[in-house]
UniProtKB/TrEMBL annotation:
This is Phosphotransferase. Residues 47-239 form the Hexokinase N-terminal domain. GO terms for cellular component: cytosol; mitochondrion. It holds the Pfam family Hexokinase_1.
Length: 483
């Protein structure tokens, strides 16, 4: 934030008779000093209004954690509660002795990943991976189209590796959408998220749909485990670090899984597991759809209204990679319309929903150059804004920062609520995966907020990044299934 003192200092420099305009060599006139003063105050005013909209103070953080705890209890009690708290059917953490090799499929965002995972020991895991970009049309067509696309991709992966598709392979399926599991390798899809919406799929078993697509392609594969990405991440981290009790995804969507005592899962009607525990997939993206505590602002509202599923996954829409750029874009557009940014000029690209990619956010946050030159490149060369001033770029950079900080602080609330729920303030590893790996400051911002909430107990929270966690974790679960 620019303080009054800083404005005075900057103006002092302008006033100094030695300073001349660098282009004309002429002394800077009283008029331009006045102009500069006006501009700085205008910038200051815009920034402070944006800060009011996006900054979440400590009282709000506490309120959110408190509400999370109430919602966890309800989700664990009722079958169709908005915060779903889904039993994963995973009742044991790995011992580190799980071995074998598995095909692992990962569907959860823009790319579909097919991997061959070799579990040799907890410190030696080999992953061969191929990514397939999901055609936009397959995301919103009949479900058969999406599942056929997956089967085709698996066929191409097997072919590349000279694996005979008729020879039976064991597979773990990471399917990162809301699914009510009915067993370790079965579950009904009840909702799409992350702008997917395939028809003829809701209420159907996703493993059955996958098996049918394999049959159509004559691929001999046995699906041993159906796993949410968060559960996979938790398991992958617990494989080498037994203190891991929480897995968090910050990718195109956001969600978390944790280890719950079976007696706390009031809605659980299945057999009592020997361990007395069950991993719960919270589906926290759906937290507070009633909008009781979340500090939802006009840009969040607009984003939600324009989305494929208004009113759903509102927490996710404030946090995850698919949406952060859109919040930045909508905030900028608002300022452009008020002629407070880019002299009121936008561009065809900038006007297009979702054109502000999450990678632009990381790059802008990493731009420490005096002229904010990478920010300029992104705005002018990639997003085709006709021209930007340094002041414009400073405003955009601050918007990006505010949106990123808010996301990290909201995520921290969920993590702290889970630590409280498990009574694990004495020590817990929290494995965090996905876009976060490349996003500057995110983990530290989460740490700051966790510290604000937990004080010295925050030292017992070990936040770690993981990579490929979901594919590895799903293979570990597949290896634990004895049939
Ligand atoms: C969405 C999905 C959830 C998934 C998360 C992260 O929130 O509903 O199942 O875990 O995205 O991929």
């Amino acid at each position: 934030m620019i303080s009054e003192k800083m404005v005075k200092n900057i103006l002092q420099v302008f006033k100094s008779s030695k300073i001349k305009n660098k282009y004309s060599g002429k002394r800077i006139s009283k008029h331009s000093i006045q102009e500069e003063k006006k501009r700085l105050y205008a910038e200051e005013d815009i920034l402070s209004k944006l800060e009011d909209i996006f900054i979440i103070g400590p009282v709000k953080l506490r309120q959110i954690v408190h509400h999370f705890l109430e919602e966890f209890r309800k989700g664990l009690e009722y079958d169709d509660y908005s915060l779903a708290m889904l039993p994963s059917f995973v009742t044991k953490l790995p011992t580190g002795q799980e071995l074998g090799n598995f095909i692992s499929l990962d569907l959860g965002g823009t790319n579909f990943k097919v991997c061959k995972v070799y579990l040799e020991n907890p410190y030696q895991i080999r992953v061969q991976q191929k990514k397939f970009s999901i055609p936009e049309t397959a995301k919103n067509a009949d479900g058969e189209r999406l599942f056929d696309f997956m089967a085709d991709s698996v066929e191409s992966f097997l072919k590349d590796r000279n694996i005979n598709k008729e020879k039976e392979q064991e597979l773990g399926f990471t399917f990162s959408f809301p699914v009510r599991q009915t067993g370790i390798n079965s579950g009904e899809l009840y909702l799409w998220s992350k702008e997917f919406n395939c028809s003829n799929t809701k209420g159907k078993d996703v493993v059955m749909m996958l098996n049918e697509a394999f049959k159509r392609n004559k691929i001999n594969i046995k699906v041993k485990a159906l796993v949410n990405d968060t559960v996979g991440i938790l398991m992958a981290s617990a494989y080498s670090d037994p203190q891991t009790f929480i897995g968090v995804v910050l990718g195109e969507g956001t969600n978390a899984a944790y280890v719950e005592k079976i007696e706390n899962i009031a809605k659980w009607k299945g057999p009592q597991p020997e361990s007395g525990k069950m991993i719960i997939n919270t589906e926290w993206g759906s937290f507070d759809e009633e909008k009781l505590v979340l500090p939802i602002n006009k840009f969040d509202e607009l984003l939600d209204q324009n989305s494929l599923d208004p009113g759903k996954h509102v927490f996710e829409k404030m946090i995850s990679g698919f949406y952060l750029g859109e919040i930045v874009r909508l905030t900028c557009l608002y300022l452009i319309n008020k002629k407070l940014l880019f002299k009121g000029q936008s561009s065809i690209i900038f006007n297009k929903p979702n054109s502000f990619d999450i990678q632009y956010l990381s790059r802008i946050e990493r731009d420490y150059s005096i002229e904010l030159s990478d920010t300029k490149l992104i705005l002018q060369d990639l997003l085709l804004i006709p021209s930007t001033t340094l002041s414009d770029r400073r405003i955009v950079r601050r918007i990006v920062e505010l949106v990123g900080i808010r996301s990290a602080r909201l995520t921290a609330c969920g993590v702290v609520a889970l630590l409280n729920q498990m009574n694990k303030l004495d020590g817990c590893t929290v494995a965090v995966d996905n876009f976060i790996n490349d996003y500057p400051h995110f983990i530290n911002r989460m740490r700051d907020a966790i510290h604000e909430l937990l004080g010295s107990f925050s030292e017992n929270v070990n936040l770690i990044h993981t990579k490929d966690g979901s594919s590895v974790g799903t293979s570990i679960i597949a290896s634990m299934v004895n049939e």
